[in-house]
Each structure stands twice: as C-alpha cells, then as structure tokens.
Amino acid sequence: MKELQELHLPENLGYTEDHEWAQLTGDTIRVGVSDYAQDQLGDIVFVELPAVGDSFNRGDEFGTLESVKAVSELYLPVSGQVVAVNQELEDAPELLNEDPYSNWILEIKPAAAEEYDQLLTAAAYLELLQG
Amino acid sequence: MEAAWCDLEQMEYDRAYSLQTRLVELCRRRRQSVFILNVEHPRVFTLGRRGGREHLMVSPERLEAEGIQLVQIERGGEITYHGPGQLVLYPIFHLRSLGLSVSAYVELLEEVMLRTAADHGIRACRDPRNHGVWVGDDKLGSIGIAIRHGVTFHGLALNVNTELTPFGWINPCGLTNTRMTSFACQGQAPEPREVQQRLNHHLAALLNLTLTPTPLTTLEAALEAARKD
C-alpha cells in the first residue's frame, strides 16, 4: 500500500470523495479512478462498465471494479450521458493498476456543466485522504 | 474501537442481506460504527456480480425439489453455497476508519479463518492464486466482500459440519474441480457455537475491536432511529 505522499494525483483533474476523477476534454468529461483507489483495491481482475447511451445523475452507481474477492462500486462524478466506455479494460482490467489516469473508464456528455467545478481539487482530495 | 455484535443464528439469506445493506447505509453516515453479524443461512446458492449461473450444474426444477434458493448479489467472486453448519461472518464498517486497504482486509479475513482452524487442530493454508483458506487442495472457507461508499459488507463463510453435497452441484467461485471440505471432514467435530466464538475472538483481536453483544431488536431500533434523522 502506498503512503499518501507517494500517490500520484494530477493537478488538472477533479476528484470525488469516492475516489473517482473527472477531466473536462472539449465538451465531454472523462472519468476514472484515482491512484488511491487502485492502490487500495489491489489487483483489479474485472471491470463492469455501463452501456453507451446510459444516463446517470451525479453520485449514481455506474459500474464496479472487482479485485480478488472484492467488488467496489463506482459512482459518477457529474450527471450526464455515457458517450464512450473504455472497452480495453474488459480484456485488460489490470491497466487500471498500471496507470489509473491514462486508462480512463468512461466518457460522458455532461448534463450540468457546473457540477464539474464543484469537484475536489487535487489538494482538497489529498487533504480528505489525510483526514 | 467498539463493535456491535449480533448473532442472527439461523436467518434467510434475503433477510440478512436486507439488514446488511441498511447497516451499510448507517456506517456511511456514522463512520465510527462497526457491526459484526454471525449467521447460518438455510440452503441457498448465491451468484456473485459476475454471474456464474453456467457454473450451476443442476436444473431449476432440481433446486426447487431440494428446496434450495438461488439469489443474485453483488459481492466479489462467483457462485457459492451456504447452508446450515456453515458459519457466516459479516463485518460491516468503513474500511478507512480502521485504516485498512481492501487487499489487506481480504488477507485479514483469511487469517481469522486460519487461526480458527488451528485452534481446532486443522492445518489450513492460503493459496496465493485463489483466496480463501485451504486444507491441501480442498477449500475450507471462502471470502467474498463488497464495498459501497468505502463501507465493506458480506464477509467470510467457514464450513464446520456443512453438508458438502450441494457444492458438488456447482463449480464454486468459478473454479473447475474445486473440492470443498469442512471441520467434520477433517475429523473435527466441535460445536459450531464454539467455532463461532473463536472466529469472533480472532476477528476482534486482529481488528482491535471490543465486541458488545447487541440483540437484533436493538439493531433494528438503531436503524429505525437513523431513518428518522
């Protein structure tokens, strides 16, 4: 398990209390899990993804990550419709352990853009972890 | 830390599941809460998140004739069987409040079962490829947990004098040709209650908890009060 200061938490992302990250790219938002989340879970063996076209509210469960014998729920950082899912993860879930940032989980078209600004900054998220 | 410990004795899977999910919600709001549930379920097959119905080798008609339920749930792992004589332990708490990662917690649950088996003269071990505890190539105890907003639920199941036949109707946890074993098969015949006490003792020691016996009615009252908050 990593020490908190060893965690990689890019400054240009927004974070949630449930350890997801979000990144605004053009008019869509990419979503993934933080370095803390992948480190806590251990080896991820299965990723359950939603379907493209599904719509969710902020905080809704949109999928799960399974590490050995443990299933963790994932929650959407901002409301919106799924426009893409990273299908590579279906065959190679371990990519999330290798790099949880370049390996995003899904991309959504946000329903309420202001929600993005309400996410935690990297510094605020780190503070929460130190809590 | 204090933990509310409740022995549900024999309880239907669905009913215990509903209790678990309500306690998860309570732990989410009160991060210092810890609940430990002991239970034995009537005969039931449960399918994990990844399904695993293809690992069930008998027809729905046969299940009905045998009076065995089939329930789909969200814990890790695939199909498994619960029945009388199998001790099930559901610790429910916020993992971070006890400073545990998911992988460390899974190992801790294994350790609880290893120590309990050792108390009864059974030399069980881990298998790094397949979690749970094993005697040789046979599986004595299983683990499956789920995490909702940082709160862990579900837990472990240890075969004391469980009938093992229904395991033969599935490939437990999706592994082909996994044989199950029990304390009884290992020539040990402790009272299940005695084994339960050892399980609780080791869990409390490893998590540094003080278990406070709590009747189900008290839990229900706490849940009801929280609901009205």
What would your notes on this structure say?
The complex is a heterodimer of chains A (131) and B (229). Chain A is α+β, with helices and mostly antiparallel strands. Chain A has 5 helices and 9 strands; from the N terminus they run E-E-E-H-E-E-E-E-E-H-H-E-H-H. Chain A has one domain: OB fold (Dihydrolipoamide Acetyltransferase, E2P), CATH 2.40.50. In chain A, 21% of the residues lie in helices and 34% in strands. In chain A, a hairpin with a 2-residue loop joins strand 2 and strand 3. Chain A is globular, with a radius of gyration of 14 Å. The mean pLDDT of chain A is 95. Chain B is of the alpha/beta class. Chain B has helices spanning 13-29, 60-66, 102-119, 192-207, 216-228, and strands spanning 2-10, 34-40, 44-47, 69-72, 80-82, 86-94, 125-127, 130-135, 138-148, 151-159, 179-180, 210-213. In chain B, strands 1, 2, 6, 7, 8, 9, 10, 11 and 12 form a 9-stranded mixed sheet that branches. A 3-stranded mixed sheet of chain B has the order 4-3-5, with no helix packed on it. Chain B is globular and about 50 Å long. Classes of the chains: A alpha+beta (131), B alpha/beta (229). The A-B interface holds A 1, 18, 39-43, 46, 48, 64, 66-73, 75 and B 48-50, 74-77, 95, 101-106, 131-132, 143-150, 152. Strand 7 of chain A pairs parallel with strand 9 (138-148) of chain B, so a sheet runs across the interface.
